[in-house]
Amino acid sequence: MSKFPKGFLWGGATAANQLEGGYREGGKGLSIADALPGGPERFKIANQPDFDWQLKPDQYTYPNHAGIDHYHRFREDIALFAEMGFKCYRFSIAWSRIFPQGDETEPNAAGLEFYDQIVAECLKYNIQPVITISHYEMPLNLVTTYGGWKNKQLIGFYERFARTVLTRYYKQVKYWMTFNEINSALHFPVMGQGLVASNGANDMQNIYQAWHNQFIAGAKAVQIGHQLDPTLKVGCMLLYATTYSYNANPVNQLATLKQNQAFNQFCGDVQVRGAYPSYTESLLQQYGFSFNDLDTTADELALLKANPVDYIGFSYYMSATVDVTGETQDKASGNLIGGVKNPYLKASDWGWQIDPTGLRIALNEMYQRYQKPLFVVENGLGAKDEISADHQVNDNYRIDYLRKHIEAMAGAVDDGVDLMGYTPWGCIDLVSASTGQMSKRYGFIYVDLDDNGQGTLNRYPKKSFSWYQQVIQSNGAKL
Ligand code: BG6
């Protein structure tokens, strides 16, 4: 028997910059992702103080330029999603297709026409589009000329972008999200906030100022969405990493509580409750500044209060473990959140600690805190796949990962959590955000493309393709 409610949104998730390609077609401008070099060192390189964001094709590769050529193959890709039985498809709209420099007053018609086709293609198969307005792909000009999200002018630019796409698609698209993984900026301000060493990423005050500006921009998107149609669902999107104390040492327990506030809770608290939480000042003081040092106005705070999000979308890949007392020296690797290794967990090939029970805990933690619907909009296993001569990929490890996470979601539904849907990440193989690799694959569909940009780009369903098809068909009963 299925534990999942009728109408549960099974689907998959992608982001424009990681699959579309066509980076200069249809009048598109450069995005921050277009200027990121490929390879595992991409963020280290972009964070060098003298990194100037000019394209240097002699020196670097740029895997996001071609993506997996979804720009030309989206019909084939969406047909495969339909074959799996997707009820929804989460994708993002590349801001730089609609406003190539970010600061224009009129949108680029060809960019909108591209997304008209994507939306139409989804609806043709009764797949509900779920749109992320901004997913790690702000126009590069907003980084180089304006200094990223710490600049308040970006609120107006984003508002224009959000109004344009909401107005164009609100009759066809019910589910929206404002900013992908907004809280990731705490460790990783490049992609979400356009902040790098050369424009102030090393100053935490800039990150919090950028967040404030994004909160206001997001509240405007919620307001516009609801003005267009009060039944529209506009959510936030968080990167959630369930966080444990390494042991029962109260000092570690307190540090865990603080890490939860700083990373998992702060951005959600503001966007869901419409107000800064009680611990804000103590959080900021540890970086040596006060809330009063941020540029905020009474009108902005009122706007925030009046426009909380309708639901919480979040990604969940791994959990984190805190040990500030130094009781273990075993550091977790490849994990954005950092911390130490959890002795009870295994890790992926990239060191991300696999923890399905942590997802059930995350769902309970968030639902108890907010009592608003939750949507798991990213989850999955980045792995190296082997393809046989007859194009078979036996990705049992991926099936096992996803099965256990779906069981954890079923457990949370039993616990009383209001869960809207599940869109595993990279439902078709695409370019990795953190490493710029193709070899870190998440998909149900194999794409013949390697880390050097070589391959036929042919699509091949993996074993997990038919497995997920039966999961959707049975509404999560057959795992
Ligand atoms: C999330 C992002 O952090 O995780 C995606 O929203 C990203 O854009 C995904 O691709 C997986 O991370 P990675 O680095 O393995 O691609």
What does this structure look like?
- By secondary structure, the protein is α/β, with parallel strands linked by helices.
- The chain has a single domain (9-473), classed as Alpha-Beta Barrel (TIM Barrel).
- Helix content is 38%, strand content 12%.
- The strands form four sheets. It has an eight-stranded parallel β-barrel, surrounded by six helices. It has a two-stranded parallel sheet with strand order 6-8. Strands 9-10 form a two-stranded antiparallel sheet.
- A hairpin with a 5-residue loop joins strand 9 and strand 10.
- The longest helix is centred in the middle third of the chain and has 25 residues, at 204-228.
- Bound molecules: 6-O-phosphono-beta-D-glucopyranose.
- 6-O-phosphono-beta-D-glucopyranose binds at residues 15, 18, 136, 180-181, 239, 315, 378, 382, 425, 432-435, 440.
